[in-house]
Amino acid sequence: MQVVDLALAAELAAQGRAPTATRLEDLDVRRVWPVPDAPAHKYTRGVVGVVAGSVPYPGAAVLTVAGATATGCGMVRYVGPAHVREQVVAAHPEVVAGGSTQVRVQAWVVGPGVQDEDQSARVREVLQAAAAQDVPVVVDAGALDDVPDRVPATVVLTPHAGELARFLSARGVPVERSQVEAEPVRWAREAHVRSGATVLLKGAVTLVVGAGDESCAPVLAQGPAPAWLATAGAGDVLAGVLGALLAGVGARSDQPWSPGVIMRAVAAGVHVHGLAAAHANPGGPVTSPAVAHALPGVVARLLRPTGPRGRES
Ligand SMILES: NC(=O)C1=CN([C@@H]2O[C@H](COP(=O)(O)OP(=O)(O)OC[C@H]3O[C@@H](n4cnc5c(N)ncnc54)[C@H](O)[C@@H]3O)[C@@H](O)[C@H]2O)[C@@H](O)CC1
Ligand SMILES: Nc1ncnc2c1ncn2[C@@H]1O[C@H](COP(=O)(O)OP(=O)(O)O)[C@@H](O)[C@H]1O
């Protein structure tokens, strides 16, 4: 498929009829991507904190960390129980692991595979401290239950349709998974308006809804990714990708976060995650670790002037 830009966006905006949804393409993503400069060191590139995994789901922690490290960041700090720490460090020896959330990071990822009280307590600590410090938090899976009623747009919720239905129902908006699937824009917006969070609703097309700014339409719609990506752990990898990107963008700027910058950063992550699924095994099945494994190559191709779909030099 080739997408041809008819330059309708400016024309529609002039008529006061902005499109409901827009999509970041390769060039937009390249502009957002944090690329280290020559004097960079690991702390100027951004550190990601990860609270993921539990005894029943250690793999979710490993996959989240895999997504973050493969996207490119200065460092990942993993925070969780000893049993999971051992598995994370065995798979990713570059990760610094511990049990306390009292660490300095530029972005957090919380929730993949979180299903015990100790990890949930860490999630709540992170949500409280990060809001006060203007540090972004990607909130996935088990951590969605711990989100306070109102949060800033630096909190990025990443539910699939079932999780969004549960999130809204818990806030007095009873809705079924099938209804979310039928009207994803409506329900993603509802979750954003109710909570204040940036909402990233995962699916074949992934929607990002947050308060827009002048240069950013209210809904970004990324995809479609190959349906082979609908496999266990793919969302855990995505959460890591988003954390690494937010840490990298945050480390380069001393400005407060704006909702539009958050939206574009996470939509860029979704775009690259879908490309990694396509490149991991074109036209065939992929596993979540294979998606993470494909990420560095996809990022390198994206940053080359020919782009990921162009000829390789
Ligand atoms: N390797 C790992 O450690 C992985 C851990 N994961 C973690 O697992 C936890 C639960 O994630 P889910 O997305 O499953 O949670 P959900 O609670 O959203 O999904 C469970 C729903 O799927 C339904 N369901 C279960 N099995 C089904 C089947 N065979 N056919 C049809 N419907 C079925 C259940 O009735 C329930 O409604 C999360 O914390 C997540 O992060 C997942 O990410 C998968 C990989
Ligand atoms: N039909 C589909 N086509 C393409 N991508 C999909 C499809 N269904 C799900 N995905 C993507 O796969 C990932 C699944 O994430 P998630 O539902 O959180 O699974 P898990 O919890 O097992 O990691 C998301 O990135 C989502 O956008």
From TrEMBL:
> Does the record bear Transferase in its keywords?
yes
- Give the catalytic activity: (6S)-NADPHX + ADP = AMP + phosphate + NADPH + H(+); (6S)-NADHX + ADP = AMP + phosphate + NADH + H(+)
Binding-site residues for (6S)-NADPHX, renumbered to this chain: A60, G113, H160, D236
**For binding AMP, which residues are annotated in this chain's numbering?**
K202, G203, A204, V205, T206, G235
Which cofactors, by name? Mg(2+)
> Under the GO molecular function aspect, what terms does this record hold?
ADP-dependent NAD(P)H-hydrate dehydratase activity; ATP binding; kinase activity; NAD(P)HX epimerase activity
Q: Which GO terms describe its biological process?
A: metabolite repair; nicotinamide nucleotide metabolic process
As recorded in UniProt, its EC number(s) are 4.2.1.136
Where is each YjeF C-terminal domain found? 25-302
Name the top EC class. lyase
Stored CDD domains: YXKO-related
What keywords sit in the KW lines? Answer: ATP-binding, Kinase, Lyase, NAD, NADP, Nucleotide-binding, Transferase
Query: InterPro entries of this UniProt entry?
Result: Carbohydrate_kinase_pred_CS, CARKD, Ribokinase-like
Stated family: Belongs to the NnrD/CARKD family.
State the function annotated in the UniProt record: Catalyzes the dehydration of the S-form of NAD(P)HX at the expense of ADP, which is converted to AMP. Together with NAD(P)HX epimerase, which catalyzes the epimerization of the S- and R-forms, the enzyme allows the repair of both epimers of NAD(P)HX, a damaged form of NAD(P)H that is a result of enzymatic or heat-dependent hydration.
Q: What protein name is recorded for this chain? A: ADP-dependent (S)-NAD(P)H-hydrate dehydratase
Tell me the gene name: nnrD
